[in-house]
Fold:
Amino acid sequence: MVKPIVIPKLGLTMKKATVVKWLKSEGEAVARDKAVAVIETEKVSAELTAPEDGILLKILRPKGSTVVVGETVGFVGKIGEPVPEVTAAQPQTAAASAPAAAGATVAPTAQADVGRAKVSPRARLLAEENGLDLSKVAGTGPGGIILEKDVQEFIQRSLYTTERGLKVREVVPVSATRKAIGDNMTSSLQTMAQVTLHYEMDASELVAYREKRLPELEGKTGARVTYTDILVKVAARALRDHPMMNSTLEDAGIKVIEDVNVGVAVASDRGLIVPVVMNADKIDLAAVVTAMKDMSARGREGNLTLEEVMSGTFTITNLGMTAVDGFTPIINPPQVAILGVGRIVKKATVVADAVAVRPMVTFSLTFDHRVVDGYTAAEFLRAMVEMLQDPAKLAAAAA
Structure:
């Protein structure tokens, strides 16, 4: 039986990818779940695997093609089996890619016509009425289809500058990565009940611990340990003790995850990436430093694997290198929490009923109130703070 090779959805934000190369040629034998091609999304590369043992009967999308989620790019079957007629550029759903029943016919749908044209009829009509060049409009529909609302929003943005006589310095194209980040964050805010807790902490012990471990870890790893590296270990320990913060909400209920995988938001020329430190609760601080050094470098080059960016259960985003004290981070779905970290700055504070100058840092913990109550989130944050302010607990957590 002929089976299609379909572009999978490799993450909540993925809409399209590029075929980097085919590892097999038409007529070559392939094995079930073994790689036949390599595709690349905005952030990662991944392998397409064969759906069953057999022969690669047909390649529909050659190297360099842009493909969308759900699209059929090839077929696997036995020698001599007929290949279904499929328009290469048309996304195929599971139902559409299955062979039709004997005697049945499949009528083309409006969605399919739109997919080939990349513009919906109503959007095209509105653009023609306004003399609009559709090449300047970004589509938000399936597979990048330009919808009527996309044209309307583009016209409104244009009118804003035109009617007010505003001078436009430049028009910066929205990259695929920037758009994916925007779509993901918008979806996060629209689908979760997000609440943020703020806590200003005396970071004296954190600063002292980093300075103490700095020479040893730099000699061992070749990299300077950062405050974020230490926070990864402390957060991992707190997540182990507060498992509801390490969960995800699904239709069947709240799924508490056994693995503690901490993602760290890293800025790059490609946009924001979030490499994940796998099993952060089971490795030592030196391993965290090594992992972050390696993944940060490869992330800026776009060479992270799918697992290294999609397997996180909790995220840390640190703006401590800027002038920011506190902020409201947005949860990276399908996770239920994210920790924002501000700069460490010396401030006057009260210590033992006396005013003293201490290095202070503000933590901002955003959590999904559908899954976690405020008390539970506050207890998690308190546990982190207690570890960070107690030398013995901090050493144990970072071990």
Observations:
- Residues 115-173 form a domain with the Dihydrolipoamide Transferase fold (CATH 4.10.320.10).
